[in-house]
């Protein structure tokens, strides 16, 4: 898969049909805690396979400090007749982003930067950013100087103004031409290329999902003095015993990979198994902050449980409780009304590399969940969330492209119940 194709796949994560949520209604749900029902979730996973939306599905849920659900349905590799298993390794695409955010916030805790520092203080290529400002009378693109610097807070909450692939403006065209996510270049070069691309809007004025998390990764390298993958391995994966999570997996693990399935003419088409190795970043210089990790249910669940436990798991302190709380708090000012497709995720704001639920579900179509939960997903339709109100974490794996939000809706409905609106009083 070419780098451009990978970037387009990343963009598809979250492009569900947006809807405008009405004002929050009074909470009427019962205060009773969620009770996970295995039979209901099993049936939901099997239905996703039976109706052709997924080749294979799996899920792992923890609640109150113990495992309350594991289930799988269908095939990790239909051609090889290899079932979806607990140790299946899946491409998680943008579920890489929260890992990168945790790495950067560790360096914040260490005093390496302030959240409102200009990114250019550490990556000087961003010192003189230009912003696309339409076309002149002759039809040529115009740019103006950025009114303020891009801050580290901006790149954590997607308000920097960066693009993330092809789009309707000349700024998008410049992004595509620059190829900042080419797999043949290191993160430092990716950052330099991006800095030459005009911004889509003035920093801090809009929310737009972007390449900003790859800038976070470049910052981790600069501030830590370590290659990004090495930093994440030694400061997150090894302490959490996430032994099957990496950008570059050993060849011996490739038989455990789930194959990718792409919907074409209404049917899922299994991709060539060789693509797994390409997506696994063998022989590629780029270690992206925004995508590229492959993981297992158990590994990613350990990451989610660490977040639920306020930054600690099994004696390993990854973040301070106050830092987790900061990351899981909505960082978008009310004045930021242009939010692209984010409203399609529900009644949410955005923290640092997580969507954050701010109100109970507003419509019957909206995903079920509790106020205060934080979550993200991936281009291949994977999903995880952390629900402090119910002391619950969930990880859902599937390898379906393009992104299919109906899978998340059905999985959440199976976990919470189709009418769930959260604990009373939220």
Describe the structure.
Helices cover 29% and strands 17% of the residues. It has 426 residues and is an alpha+beta fold. It has a domain at 106-224: Beta-lactamase (3-Layer(aba) Sandwich), CATH 3.40.710. The strands form five sheets. Strands 3-2-1-16-15-14-13-12 form an eight-stranded antiparallel sheet. Strands 8-7-17 form a three-stranded mixed sheet, with no helix packed on it. The protein has a two-stranded antiparallel ribbon with strand order 4-9. Helix 2 packs antiparallel against helix 12 (405-416). It is globular, with a radius of gyration of 21 Å. The N and C termini lie far apart (45 Å). Residues 1-31 have low confidence and may be disordered.
Q: Could you give the topology of this structure?
A:
Elements: H1 3-12, H2 38-50, E1 56-63, E2 66-77, E3 82-83, E4 90-91, H3 96-109, E5 130-135, E6 141-145, H4 152-157, H5 170-178, H6 187-195, H7 212-224, H8 228-240, E7 261-264, E8 267-270, H9 274-279, E9 294-295, H10 297-308, E10 312-313, E11 316-317, H11 321-327, E12 348-350, E13 355-357, E14 374-377, E15 383-387, E16 392-398, E17 400-401, H12 405-416
Parallel strand pairs: 7-17
Antiparallel strand pairs: 1-2, 1-16, 2-3, 4-9, 5-6, 7-8, 10-11, 12-13, 13-14, 14-15, 15-16
